[in-house]
Amino acid sequence: xxxxxxxxxxxxxxxxxxxxxxxxxxxxxxxxxxxxxxxxxxxxxxxxxxxxxxxxxxxxxxxxxxxxxxxxxxxxxxxxxxxxxxxxxxxxxxxxxxxxxxxxxxxxxxxxxxxxxxxxxxxxxxxxxxxxxxxxxxxxxxxxxxxxxxxxxxxxxxxxxxxxxxxxxxxxxxxxxxxxxxxxxxxxxxxxxxxxxxxxxxxxxxxxxxxxxxxxxxxxxxxxxxxxxxxxxxxxxxxxxxxxxxxxxxxxxxxxxxxxxxxxxxxxxxxxxxxxxxxxxxxxxxxxxxxxxxxxxxxxxxxxxxxxxxxxxxxxxxxxxxxxxxxxxxxxxxxxxxxxxxxxxxxxxxxxxxxxxxxxxxxxxxxxxxxxxxxxxxxxxxxxxxxxxxxxxxxxxxxxxxxxxxxxxxxxxxxxxxxxxxxxxxxxxxxxxxxxxxxxxxxxxxxxxxxxxxxxxxxxxxxxxxxxxxxxxxxxxxxxxxxxxxxxxxxxxxxxxxxxxxxxxxxxxxxxxxxxxxxxxxxxxxxxxxxxxxxxxxxxxxxxxxxxxxxxxxxxxxxxxxxxxxxxxxxxxxxxxxxxxxxxxxxxxxxxxxxxxxxxxxxxxxxxxxxxxxxxxxxxxxxxxxxxxxxxxxxxxxxxxxxxxxxxxxxxxxxxxxxxxxxxxxxxxxxxxxxxxxxxxxxxxxxxxxxxxxxxxxxxxxxxxxxxxxxxxxxxxxxxxxxxxxxxxxxxxxxxxxxxxxxxxxxxxxxxxxxxxxxxxxxxxxxxxxxxxxxxxxxxxxxxxxxxxxxxxxxxxxxxxxxxxxxxxxxxxxxxxxxxxxxxxxxxxxxxxxxxxxxxxxxxxxxxxxxxxxxxxxxxxxxxxxxxxxxxxxxxxxxxxxxxxxxxxxxxxxxxxxxxxxxxxxxxxxxxxxxxxxxxxxxxxxxxxxxxxxxxxxxxxxxxxxxxxxxxxxxxxxxxxxxxxxxxxxxxxxxxxxxxxxxxxxxxxxxxxxxxxxxxxxxxxxxxxxxxxxxxxxxxxxxxxxxxxxxxxxxxxxxxxxxxxxxxxxxxxxxxxxxxxxxxxxxxxxxxxxxxxxxxxxxxxxxxxxxxxxxxxxxxxxxxxxxxxxxxxxxxxxxxxxxxxxxxxxxxxxxxxxxxxxxxxxxxxxxxxxxxxxxxxxxxxxxxxxxxxxxxxxxxxxxxxxxxxxxxxxxxxxxxxxxxxxxxxxxxxxxxxxxxxxxxxxxxxxxxxxxxxxxxxxxxxxxxxxxxxxxxxxxxxxxxxxxxxxxxxxxxxxxxxxxxxxxxxxxxxxxxxxxxxxxxxxxxxxxxxxxxxxxxxxxxxxxxxxxxxxxxxxxxxxxxxxxxxxxxxxxxxxxxxxxxxxxxxxxxxxxxxxxxxxxxxxxxxxxxxxxxxxxxxxxxxxxxxxxxxxxxxxx
Length: 1419
Fold this sequence. Notes:
By secondary structure, the chain is mainly beta. Helices cover about 10% and strands about 35% of the residues. The protein has nine helices and 89 strands. A hairpin with a 3-residue loop joins β37 (about 380-385) and β38 (about 385-390). α4 packs across α8. Mean pLDDT is about 75; it is low at about 1-40, about 1030-1065 and about 1095-1390.
């Protein structure tokens, strides 16, 4: 104890002397940074001579905690207890001694009051210099005397050992002693106490009998245990089994302490005890620190880290052996490898105090400045785990800095002084003025680049150096950055914080000193995503041979809440990094390779993503016993008494540590023979001698590491010679050699040499075609035959045989043989598979199925046949097939290209028999939405029309189907949301489009999106185009619109600012159009009236024909006898909506039943619409469709109808609203008496001023509300005739979709378009009824609505779908209904001839109906 105290005192003095001397490196560093002539202050020695140490005391005793500090000025000493200063002035029990030590009189300690126990620290302060603190010392007060176990009476045989328990708290062990018969019992070589207080007596004699008790003397009256009687028995006459009275238990000790491993046994005969450490026997006799105590216990004094390991106590008494193990874990208090050094520095500089420590467990480090904890911040940082970095020094940073290292078993401190020097005064001479034009030429998130011009006082500035001072706004702590060479006028400031305002100033310096400072420049760094910084204090340590624990702390700059961490690790030397998500600050990785180095790093994650990774830390897993046996074990019989064993180490990666040796076990081959064990070094051979003659021995070998023995090899055997044979010469020639050739092999057999007195170790067989030296095989000396494999058929081989021993090879014996020919016939080919079919499953998957005629009828495969499927695209230039094998009668081909025709064929293979390829099957994969945007998008201005541009493009490279259209998006703001861009649809596969009415001298951005039947593809990148500044040729009186014959109104609606055809109509042009339409209307009405008066027909005959046509079929089978509805070209401004009566038909079908005039009236509609329908089947917004009636139908006299087509709906209920563009444009201005036509949103403008009307309506007598029905999934093309009915047979709801069946025949693949109603009108759908008979009654209460030719900019309609049902066309019910007679009359009138006076009456009647319809609207 005294020696350790002396060592600690010498260590303290050495540290003090080190701190007292200036660090030469620091002095050199500071002198290099200090200008010549600066006043250099010297470092002041200030250190502790003595520091307090951990102390154990008892209640009522006095304690002195030593402390003494040295300084030229006498320091003031104070004490802290548990981090708080003690007020020693008013404390009557504690007082400060003159040398600074702390005296505690009468230690107070009770169960509930422990004022003196705790951690004490000495604090020394010198005014105007600084403060230092000592290490922390723990004062422990022993508890009240209390026994946890007491001695019990027992008996022991003479010569054996005995143990008497007396367990007390560890604090009280130093105060325990024993009494025999109430007299002090003195310890000797035969008697000792364990650290727990138990008494061990070995080699018991008769004098050891008596009464025993243990005594605790910890101040005050002693405390006695119960008395126990020990009886000594005579030697037993029979052997006793060995038993452990006390086994060794694992211990954790600190270096310098002592440890005792008890190993107390009982048994007869008296056993012998030996100790092993890590599988190696301890040589206790020659060691000063290892001592074998009485009875066999082991004491280790002055423990070092090398003493750690597994200790085994092996007890043997000749009859049996028992063994017990325990581990010794050694911990070490912190120890400094590198002490902090004194530093000179100037203000604004950055410095680093270095501090390297070691210890076990790994110590943690904290820094103290003038007695106060240094809290890490932007300017005080812990770098490289232990070093302290101070950025931007200020005068107040001067003082003493101490590195405090601590772990579970101790703590230590070391300090250094920081002196901040004043700048030397400038020498005489002109100083530079302030640098000019300081600007931040580059600003990033974490760095700023500054540039400036030379000062006005020195325009050339070649010899000037510059210093940049910078700080955060509002912070007085400036940092400094110097330029790298004279004359350089730029510097990059690194490691800044994002989104932070910094203040910069630049100072020029010449040979006379620094000049004026530039005006401060404020610059804010760019913001960045607030990601976490690196996790500090990452540490890793091995727990076992297969696990490592990694710990870390929360990042100092977390930038918000840390959500989790990702721990990356990989085996050293590989590039296969793995990771695991961790929620806390530690993680144990299991399943690692043994005795292998791994590197670890940690990345913190917050809501913005991953932060900065830590540096890698490398740790090696602990060693273990080898996990594999040695390899290639071989035996060589040397003579009649020895065998040489040779082997190779275990495979790489299975050593699990350093191989320290090999354990060899051998025995006679008989099972019950005793095993002999031999432990050798790391050599890979061993000669086993002293064996018996002519005896077979078995051997096995196992590898050893410091952790133990690994698995052993299998037993292999060898037989010693009967007599010692001659091995001074080579063996003689074998006595015979025979060969037997086969097709691909030759069997060789032989007999040994006749002279049996020469050692034969084995035989060498050489063979080859024409020469025996091509290949050589060696076999054992016991072997008498060998088969040479893998030979060529019908080939001549020469074979040689030689016996060999350690001297060399003997005389060879030669033989030759010819292998047999290969006569196996070629297998007949198999029949190819039949019925190959390709079933398309998706855009990239096709299932191929086939049948095999060579299988039974149930097509069950019972043999080892397999099928090969091959496929390729059906392109003549493509000849490359892909293949795949399968053992079933089908195969799923995946990863195909969409909308591509493939051909497939199959062949079958069984053993070496294969079929030819089957007939090919073809299949085209389904389409998929385009997966690439249109390419080569270009925008050019149209010549002569500066407000019109032409967009050109190429189809997408991955169209994945037939392109049905494009959408052009354009905007003046490239960052606008996509729904705010203007949309231009392009139908079909056109690759150019004009956009008109753009603003001059304005940048536009264009994107294009392709579509096919499956949907929309991705958008192209935005292309910018600026319209020209000149207006071109558009003069004052010219028409300002560039509307071509194929112009389509844009998607964005008629109120769009660009491209609207009605935005800037000239008033004169509008007037001309209106007048022209009026004139044309009058001419047409006159022609119709004349045409109608000339027609004569039988009224009754046409009526019957119409009824028969309706009842016969719902399909239109037009012929020359079909009824023609009346023409209703009218000039009236109002039109009555005439409801159609219900029919009593018991099986109502929702049909729209206009009557065509003949077959030619229907066919042109289908033909003219065929291409448009396919190209425009789906809308570009929602499910709108864009169909329009053919102008050919108009020329053939087909009556315009207002139809309400419906789109197909998704399988779930959906309500979608779509903007509908106004019908009105320069081509569509009609007379006020004309009907506005609710045409589709994307129709071609017609030259015919009469738009094609479409209607689909029905009236219901019993229900006056609008009803919505499900629409079938096929498109219903509107018929081109007015609605009629039959009084007796008309379906009650047939007025809505009678054309459905015929439409399905003509184009069953079309989807139904969505309903669009253009005029903003209360009645969303209506039909124009036939003219009622003259004199029919009319109910004045029936609401009526005027149909006005008004310009409607945007009307929104809703299409409603219902889950699981197909949707028939939507009937729109109008209140009330006429009688059946009126319906019949309408049919009759549809075929009647009108005289001029009858036509006048009908017009008047319609005028009344329109007035009533207007009343409905106003209501």
